[in-house]
């Protein structure tokens, strides 16, 4: 029988006899299963919401289309027809849906999806007056975060690894079997390495089983590359934590000190280091948003011909083709003036909002400088990126909305500036929101894996050196 | 005898290099957190003041315009950072910082600082409160889990008992020694906090809050020490003691708070903003909408006024009927908003109630809530701010509508108010709650600390009786 077979069989027997370790494993599986359920129920709610809002807007559209057939000799019919056909009315009452549907893996790592609105209902009014106003949330819930599978893996998996491995060597010391092991024909270093390997394989199997169950619950739409990426990131993270434990064990401390050191490292990597980074980055960067509050203001302008002409002239400098040859006032003159004012205001606001998004990106970039010393945050970011719940996707969604809003503006204003009514054909050709979410690039994924595995290998080498020194001393 | 015990424990503590090193690291972390907290407080206060001044100037320097149109220009209420937010950031990152106040609508708060940060923020922010709530207990656990097992394995415990010492006395000695070093380690942080509050010009109420914070944190940490010593006494050796304490720490500080928040959200789901606003809109449309005097409610109002003033047309009324209708519409929409917001707040209250009940069994949740409450960074302070901001919105909109009603004629939308009128609307000023009001929602938390002390006391007595 080979060494690893002997050790694996022995360790399995010991594991099955250890009530603490079996409880830890079962607790972890239970929490993992709950997190899969939790993530899917959260995403399920979001999907239901998106469907219901989409249906409501579709019904509204049908009502608008029906209004073209309305009997305009009655007050109600005339009102309905005008609401649909008058571009000056439709521009602020006909709504469009811009949604950020959840990606296939979103239920596994909810990331920032609870913080940002995942859909907007928009019309031709100023974009920021519609999107900057807050959403309904419970701040307490947002602060507590989500009990998703990513939380179980990033926070609790290292604790399981600690619970399984912290006394691999010290237990032998406590039981007085260490000297017996040292007399065996196999080097102590190899025996300990095999014991750790057994636990590592067990944990990897657990990660695989829980992830596979979560993938199955995702249903169709899941891509192989994303699933593989998810597993690779978790395998690398698991490897890193076993390296940390192997290093701690290599110092040959007693059981209590091993437990304290392991938990100390967990506290540092999961709480202290991320919190310090947040403080460092937040301390060096001002909050940009309070300056932008003014963008939520209702846009009003004097309803004077002079003001309208000023707004229109400014507008025509951007869109010269729309400038009429005839300067006489059209029936839509005042409405055109207000739309022109809205558009130029929007262009001014965009500069400020772009600055905010740039600052947010910059802050994110700064946080990523610390990836090497903050593997937990790094792993969480990688899982979020694979699940499409990261900040990058949110910023791209906002960019897509900005583009879509321009189309929404022209949907009614094209008719308004052509001094005509909207028709059914306009509604048939209404703009649709298109959002091609970004995917995590292979380069970023491999760099992340390289950093996690690289750190792990360095720690293993350090532990190996420690064991060699200790082994020589024992001899 | 107890005095000798305390002296011996403290002496051992001073000889323990790893404890001294950890305590030093803890002090450095506290200092870093205090410096960081002060910087964040100073910058965000400066930014808020600048934004407030800018928005106020924009309100004051509006062109002369119709009062209702001027009201539509709107005002802003900025949530101030309390002086104690540098101690405990609480929910500040997740409650919006500003709300836009305009006629006919009650808006939600915008610009949550968390929206400008990646998910790294979910790992927590380094604050004095976070260190005292999460890390300081670990220092106590790591230092106390061997308190009895060491005596047992070293054989000294029998020596102590043989000298007539009871378990109760031994426990008390060790506990008091722990309390002394906890006070010594906590003192610099609270002196620093007190000085910072005086430096930034805080009020007497602020000083009371600091003292209360000190008191509650001491109670919380004493409780952690009491439980750690008890677990150490009940455990056969060091290993089960440390595993039990780490299990308790993990369960109470990581799992229970997260579970409580998730359970609340699942049991009492919140409406989406779209549904919420649709319901409000529908309710308002059933009544008068503030801009349309031809609705059924407006007709009833018209008939009522014509009868009251004995005139046959609204143009003969001694005030502008449109202004009157506008304000009546505002009052109606406020009533609708009150109805919906109150039901929303009840739902949020039900969600948070789970965490409040959890605080009864989880002292960490209890101290977290009490700390946020005293620092003015909790949900209920935010709610209070929201109420005051809403009252201000109603006040300035009513003020503008009344001007329209009293000084303009029916159909006269050319009527304009002078710039002086804008200055008559005072700037919004938030009046903070008293410490008692801030603590009121967290009464269960006090019970939690008391209950845990009681349970610990009972278990000490049981162990004492078993041993004797």
Largest interface (CB within 8 Å) is between: A-B, 83 and 90 residues
Question: What is the spatial order of strands in the main beta sheet of chain B?
Answer: 1-2-3
Q: Helix count of chain A, per DSSP? A: 18
Low-confidence stretches of chain A: none
Element-by-element helix/strand order of chain A: HHHHEEHHHHHHHHHHHHHH
Transmembrane segments (chain A): 21-40, 149-169, 200-222, 228-251, 263-282, 440-462
Protein name (chain A): ABC-2 type transport system permease protein
Keywords (chain A): Membrane, Transmembrane, Transmembrane helix
Pfam families (chain A): DUF3526 (PF12040)
Describe it for me?
Chain A: Keywords: Membrane, Transmembrane, Transmembrane helix. The complex is a heterodimer of chains A (475) and B (468). The mean pLDDT of chain A is 89. Chain A has one domain. Chain A has 18 helices and 2 strands. In chain A, α3 (75-85) packs across α4 (87-93) and α7 packs parallel to α11. Chain A has a two-stranded antiparallel sheet with strand order 1-2. With 475 residues, chain A is an all-alpha fold. Chain A has helices at 3-17, 19-67, 75-85, 87-93, 127-131, 139-144, 149-165, 170-175, 178-182, 188-218, 224-250, 255-283, 305-318, 333-368, 375-387, 391-417, 424-428, 442-474; strands at 96-99, 119-122. Chain B has 468 residues and is mainly α. Chain B contains 17 helices and 3 strands. Chain B has helices spanning 2-15, 17-60, 67-73, 128-144, 149-154, 156-162, 167-199, 204-234, 238-267, 273-285, 296-309, 321-361, 363-375, 379-407, 419-424, 435-439, 443-467; strands spanning 75-78, 98-102, 105-106. A 3-stranded antiparallel beta sheet of chain B has the order 1-2-3. In chain B, α8 (204-234) packs antiparallel against α13 (363-375), α9 (238-267) packs antiparallel against α12 and α12 runs parallel beside α17. Chain B is elongated and about 105 Å long. Chain B starts with a helix and ends with a helix. The mean pLDDT of chain B is 87. Chains A and B meet through α2, α6, α7, α12 and α14 of A and α2, α3, β2, α4 and α9 of B.
């Amino acid at each position: 029988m080979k060494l690893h077979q002997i050790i694996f069989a022995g360790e399995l027997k010991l594991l099955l006899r250890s009530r603490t370790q079996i409880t830890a494993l079962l607790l972890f599986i239970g929490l993992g299963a709950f997190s899969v359920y939790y993530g899917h129920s959260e995403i399920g709610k979001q999907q239901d919401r998106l469907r219901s809002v989409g249906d409501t807007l579709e019904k509204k559209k049908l009502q608008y289309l029906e209004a073209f057939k309305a009997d305009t000799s009655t007050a109600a019919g005339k009102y309905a027809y005008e609401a649909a056909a008058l571009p000056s009315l439709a521009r602020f009452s006909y709504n469009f849906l811009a949604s950020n549907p959840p990606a296939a893996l979103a239920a596994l790592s909810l990331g920032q999806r609870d913080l940002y609105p995942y859909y907007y209902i928009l019309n031709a009014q100023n974009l920021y007056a519609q999107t900057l106003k807050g959403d309904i949330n419970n701040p307490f819930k947002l602060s507590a975060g989500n009990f998703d599978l990513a939380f179980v893996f990033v926070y609790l998996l290292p604790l399981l690894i600690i619970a399984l491995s912290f006394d691999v060597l010290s237990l032998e010391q406590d039981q007085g079997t260490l000297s017996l092991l040292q007399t065996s024909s196999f080097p102590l270093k190899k025996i300990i390495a095999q014991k750790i390997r057994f636990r590592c394989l067990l944990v990897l199997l657990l990660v695989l089983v829980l992830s596979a169950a979560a993938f199955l619950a995702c249903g169709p739409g899941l891509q192989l590359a994303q699933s593989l990426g998810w597993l690779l990131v978790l395998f690398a993270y698991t490897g890193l934590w076993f390296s940390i434990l192997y290093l701690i064990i290599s110092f040959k401390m007693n059981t209590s000190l091993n437990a304290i050191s392991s938990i100390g490292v967990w506290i540092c990597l999961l709480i202290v280091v991320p919190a310090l980074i947040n403080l460092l980055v937040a301390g060096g960067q001002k909050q940009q948003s309070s300056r932008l509050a003014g963008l939520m203001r209702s846009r009003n302008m004097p309803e004077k011909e002079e003001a309208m002409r000023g707004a229109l002239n400014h507008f025509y400098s951007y869109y010269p083709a729309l400038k009429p040859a005839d300067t006489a006032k059209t029936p839509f003159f005042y409405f055109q003036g207000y739309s022109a004012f809205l558009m130029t205001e929007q262009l001014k606001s965009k500069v400020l909002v772009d600055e905010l998004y740039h600052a947010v990106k910059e802050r994110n970039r700064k946080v990523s400088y610390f990836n090497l010393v903050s593997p937990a945050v790094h792993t969480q970011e990688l899982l979020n990126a694979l699940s499409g719940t990261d900040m990058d996707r949110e910023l791209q969604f906002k960019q897509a909305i900005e583009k879509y809003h321009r189309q929404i503006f022209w949907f009614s204003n094209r008719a308004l500036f052509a001094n005509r009514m909207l028709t059914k054909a306009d509604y048939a050709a209404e703009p649709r929101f298109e959002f091609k979410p970004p995917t995590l690039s292979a380069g970023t994924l491999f760099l992340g894996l390289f950093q996690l595995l690289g750190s792990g290998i360095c720690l293993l080498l350090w532990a190996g050196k420690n064991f060699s020194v200790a082994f020589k001393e024992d001899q | 005898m107890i005095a000798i015990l305390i002296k011996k424990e403290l002496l051992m503590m001073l000889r323990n290099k790893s404890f001294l090193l950890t305590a030093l690291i803890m002090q450095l972390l506290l200092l870093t957190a205090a410096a960081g907290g002060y910087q964040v407080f100073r910058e965000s206060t400066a930014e808020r003041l600048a934004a407030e001044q800018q928005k106020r100037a924009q309100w004051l320097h509006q062109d002369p315009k119709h009062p209702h149109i001027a009201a539509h220009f709107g005002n802003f209420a900025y949530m101030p950072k309390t002086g104690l937010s540098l101690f405990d950031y609480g929910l500040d990152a997740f409650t919006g910082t500003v709300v836009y106040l305009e006629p006919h609508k009650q808006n939600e708060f915008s610009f949550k600082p968390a929206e400008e940060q990646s998910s790294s923020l979910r790992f927590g922010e380094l604050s004095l409160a976070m260190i005292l709530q999460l890390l300081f207990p670990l220092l106590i656990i790591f230092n106390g889990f061997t308190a009895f097992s060491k005596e047992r394995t070293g054989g000294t415990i029998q020596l102590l008992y043989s000298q007539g010492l009871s378990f109760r006395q031994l426990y008390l000695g060790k506990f008091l020694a722990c309390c002394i070093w906890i006070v010594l380690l906590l003192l610099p942080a609270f002196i620093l906090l007190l000085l910072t509050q005086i430096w930034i010009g805080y009020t007497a109420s602020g000083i009371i809050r600091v003292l209360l914070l000190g008191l509650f944190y001491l109670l919380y940490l004493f409780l952690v020490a009491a439980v750690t010593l008890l677990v150490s006494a009940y455990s056969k050796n060091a290993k089960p003691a440390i595993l039990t304490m780490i299990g308790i720490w993990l369960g109470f500080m990581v799992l229970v708070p997260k579970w409580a928040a998730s359970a609340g959200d699942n049991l009492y789901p919140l409406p989406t903003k779209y549904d919420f606003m649709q319901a409000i809109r529908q309710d308002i449309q059933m009544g008068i909408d503030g801009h349309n005097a031809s609705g059924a409610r407006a007709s009833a109002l018209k008939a009522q006024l014509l009868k009251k003033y004995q005139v046959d047309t609204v143009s003969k009324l001694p005030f502008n009927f449109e202004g009157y209708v506008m304000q009546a519409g505002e009052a109606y929409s406020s009533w609708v908003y009150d109805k919906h917001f109150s039901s929303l707040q009840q739902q949020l209250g039900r969600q948070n109630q789970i965490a409040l009940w959890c605080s009864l069994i989880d002292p960490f949740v209890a101290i977290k809530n009490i700390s946020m409450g005293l620092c003015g960074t909790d949900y209920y302070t935010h709610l209070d701010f929201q109420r005051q901001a809403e009252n201000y919105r109603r006040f300035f909109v009513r003020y503008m509508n009344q001007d329209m009603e009293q000084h303009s004629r029916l159909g006269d939308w050319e009527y304009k108010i002078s710039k002086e009128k804008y200055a008559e609307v005072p700037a919004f000023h938030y009046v903070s709650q008293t410490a008692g009001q801030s603590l009121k929602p967290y009464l269960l938390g006090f019970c939690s600390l008391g209950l845990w002390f009681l349970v610990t006391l009972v278990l000490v007595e049981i162990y004492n009786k078993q041993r004797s």
